[in-house]
Amino acid sequence: MELTVIPQIVKFASENTREIGDVLGIGPELRVRWAEGLLDKGPVEDTIFYAGEMYPVMGYAEGAFRLTKRLEGLMNINSLARIGPIMKKLRVYAIGARALWGKNNEIYENALRDAVYVLRNLGVKMSYLFEEEPPSGVALHTYGLLKEFKEHAKWVQNRFRELGVKRVITLDPIVTTAFRLYYPEFLEDWDVEVLHFVEIVAKRIAELGIKLKLGRKEKVTYHDPCYLARTLGIVDETRFILSRIDGLEYLEPPRHGVNTGCSGDGGLELTQPLLARKISLDRVKELRETGAEKVYTSCPACIMMLRTGFNALGYRTDVNDLASLIAEAMRNGIIEEKPATVKFRRYHVLPESPKPKSLDSDDLAELLLRETDRCKKCAFCNVECPVARALDKLESRSARGRMTLINSLVRGDPVRPEAVLDRLYSCVLCAQCSQTCPVGLHVQELIIYGRAYAIYSGKAGV
Amino acid sequence: MAELMLYTPVRLVSNELTYYLSLLLEVGVYMNGNSFDDAISEIKRKIGKKKVLIEPGDLYAYSLDASTERREAPGAIVRTYADEDVITTLKVADEKRIPVIPRGGGTSLTGASIPVVPKSIVLDLTPMDDIQVNIDDGYAMAEAGATVLQVDQACRNEGFFFPPDPASSRYATIGGALAENAGGLRGAKFGVMKNWVLAMEVVIPGGKKLRIGEPVLKWRWGPDLISLFIGSEGTLGVITRAWLRIYPLPEKVVRIMGVFNKLEDAGRAISEIRRRGYLPMMLELLDKETVDIVEEVLGYKFPKGEAMVIVDVDGPIEAVWRLARQVENVMKENRGKTETSDDPEKMKNLYLARQGAYAAVTRAYPSVLHEDITVPLSKLVDALRELDNLRRKYGLRMPVFGHAGDGNLHPDICFDPSDKAQARKAKEMFKKVGELAVRLGGAVSGEHGIGFVKKEIFLEEIKSVRGENYLELVRKVKRVLDPNGIMNPGKLWF
Q1: Which CATH class is domain A361-456?
Q2: pLDDT by residue (tens digit) across B271-291?
Q3: In a domain, B23, yes or no
Q4: Distance between CA atoms of A265 and A272, rounded to whole angstroms?
Q5: How far apart are CA B245 and CA B191, in angstroms?
Q6: Domain contains B459
Q7: Does residue B120 lie within any of the structural domains?
Q8: How many Cβ pairs within 8 Å bridge chains A and B?
Q9: Which residues have CB under 8 Å from A371's CB, separation 6+?
Q10: Can you give the CATH number for the domain in which B84 is found?
């Protein structure tokens, strides 16, 4: 196995993100297909519907992810990343992807169309930027390429200013997190308002006092995406929406809301697909045990992981986006009731983000040392760490182990930087650790800064 | 010469270098690079190379536990999935004289689960986590790597529970909890780990598996070898599985919180509760400093006083409230202001100060020395007063909370390690607290264990209370089971 410091796949993903806009490098042509004939171009009243770089092409990622399973043992994920650029040169990449996995992509494209349908019916005005939509670049943040992320964020900010965008509505919780939490951290005057689909839908349903009619009885469960529930604290809205759909029997999984379980994505699906699959199966079993016939969620990466997970276990349970369920019910009929003001709580379960003075490796080192020195090694973070769970509590790939290794790397213990980076990359960034840490360490963000340090310090030979 | 060294008690030296030299000589382990590499190759060949880790990126992750003091990174990690893995490792390690450190969740506060000598094998038992609950015969069988909480939950599914509940129970393993003789909040009524074992399987150096005791509720063997291994901190062998007693779930629990203006009043109330035989399931005490820190850091508000006492009583629904009222009355008789509830939400609130103690202390201070002394119940108030004097004398913050029901107190000495003077004071204070416990007729550790962190003060306690002969006797026992001194060197007595 080739062990470059940034595994080939991370290089592939980050180059694609910067140059083509999406992680797999599918390209804007296929990314905007879903909206053709549906939305007008340009902002309406400063507002756009923002599809992001995941939803429009997630089906291709799902196809590639399924392929890695078939090729297991024959080639690893990094060698797949090497084939991509060759296919691109031969100009068969996007065409090939579409021919192979276009069918997989329908459910994600439908989710976007359904979201637009729902918002419109609730009286929300918006348009779409089509090819001009700047990708959020959140994958750069995920993989610790923070300098590149900062640069990219500046560019996005300028694009939005040029295009007159002041308000963004999106279906993607990862993008929402990037715009709402990461951009303000990296940019001084980021002032774009970002709303997640469920926030608007819940508010409008309450204001209008309506109920939606599904037209059939169905047992469903909902998987809270970690970015939406734990990081952004949006939980009440989804439960309220589900309670306003007639015909649903809602079954709550044991781990839900801010305590949700991980479905195995968070970037791991690219760096360690086999491990990611193992984690997803843990969650799939839990969701299945609720007795639900259908699983809904609100994140493209979660949909992909749960779909492939159910498939791998041979279950026929369907996984779909919450937007598609709402749209289906809305098409079936709307029951008018009394308008009401509903208070949706915003949950704050994560500690304050650590802030380095700059992204220079000395400043990163200072921050990482100070923070990881505070770690008491109590292992509370390891209890729910999905990676530790999937690997029989292997310490070096657990939340606590990562804190130890970051400390060792910065301190100059004889650990190989590329080995540490490899262990930092085997994390799903679910932030369960940050939520549990009694000391108040934002473990998840320290892992991202640890990745950045390993890359930028030059120790890892990048 | 080696023989002679082995019987010489560790000289109690403050100079770290001399301390380590004496330690290395004492354990009789010779550091031979080749024999280590040979041993690892042999273990890999016999149990499969995937279970043996030698990449520094893995080794360093295993170089720390909740003591947060690193001494040495391990030379190798062996992850055990079956008894055979443990047996093979201990056989090869014994032949080649390689130190072996058994490790569970790595939550030891005293460094019991990390190496202090170079080129040692850390035996990671967490993958062995099978649990079988047998209600008919009244036990739960758990492998070493199952967490204490997993065992408890498995029992709860059947209407029973596993009473010992160390604060780390979510990650601490049965093997580790037994090796450390861990306690917990319910100790006031249910005691510690050693009170809950029916039988155990242990692998000793040379790779011999011993089954001690029987999974029946009554058996008599003598001498009791189970007790020999419990609390031995992995210095005699590796506990691989245990058959544990279980207990029916209480029908109902009621929580009473009392706040006292004077520490003495709280002390009297506690001893009165015990004297009248109410036997509460939990009896916790928090001093003013603890409550203050929790308020400062976590932003809660609590009633003011010198001490807060939290009591859980359990019993049949018809009787539990009568018992709760009796406890409440004792508190009131001693000028305590009380609040009582059986509502889960309210019970949580009554416990908030205790619940937040660890988080508040560790958030507010970069370094904390967790003390763990036990004093006779009659000396509880004296101990608290003396601790207060120490606090004043050294000028460091030291919240004191703990399991007053069994005389076990946790003074947490808070300091900033970058301030050399503070760090020195904290170390001195740590020693003084231990001495105080011994002087009052108690012990330097109630439940955290000795490891290497408390070794010095522990040996002082033993020498002053029992004399050198006692130490020699224990060392002889060690030599019978572990003649080459490979098991967890540098910890506890050895």
Answers
A1: mainly alpha
A2: 999 999 999 999 999 999 999
A3: no
A4: 10
A5: 12
A6: no
A7: yes
A8: 96
A9: A354, A441, A446
A10: 3.30.43.10
Cβ <8 Å between B127 and A413: no
CATH topology of domain A216-336: Rossmann fold (3.40.50)
Partner-chain contact B57 A392, CB within 8 Å: no
Q: How far from B30 is each of B33, B36, B93, B206, B207, CA to CA, in Å?
A: 9, 10, 12, 17, 20
In a domain, B21, yes or no: no
Look up residue B146 and give its two tokens: 């199952």
pLDDT tens digit string along A80-126? Answer: 777 777 777 777 777 788 888 888 899 999 999 999 999 999 999 99
Interface of B with A (CB under 8 A): 53, 55-58, 60-68, 73, 79, 81, 105-107, 124, 126-127, 129, 145, 168, 170-171, 358-359, 362-363, 366, 368
**Per-residue model confidence as pLDDT tens digits over A3-37:** 344 678 888 888 899 888 998 888 898 899 999 99
Strand residue runs (E) in B288-437:
307-315, 336-341, 367-370, 373-374, 400-403, 408-415
Q: What confidence score (pLDDT) does residue A49 get?
A: 97
The count of domains in chain B is 3
Whether residues A416 and B57 touch (CB distance < 8 A) is answered with yes
State ipTM: 0.91
Distance from CA of A423 to the nearest CA of B (A): 8
Q: Which domain holds residue B196?
A: 131-248
Measured in angstroms, the CA of B23 and the nearest CA of chain A are apart by: 24
The pTM (predicted TM-score) of the whole model is 0.92
- Pair B244, B257 in one domain: no
Contact A423 B73 (CB under 8 A): no
Residue A99: its pLDDT value, please?
82
User: Where exactly does CATH 3.40.50 map onto chain A?
Assistant: 216-336
Inspect the interface and report whether the beta carbons of B168 and A413 lie closer than 8 Å. Answer: no
Interface contact A413-B363, CB threshold 8 A: no
Q: What percent of chain B has pLDDT over 70?
A: 93
Q: In chain B, whose CA is at the least distance from the CA of A382?
A: B171
pLDDT of residue B15: 45
Confidence class for position B22, pLDDT limits 50, 70, 90: low
pLDDT in tens, B62-96: 999 999 989 999 999 999 999 999 999 999 999 99
Alpha-carbon torsion (B47, B39, A1, A390), positive or negative: positive
Q: How far apart are CA B276 and CA B389, in angstroms?
A: 31
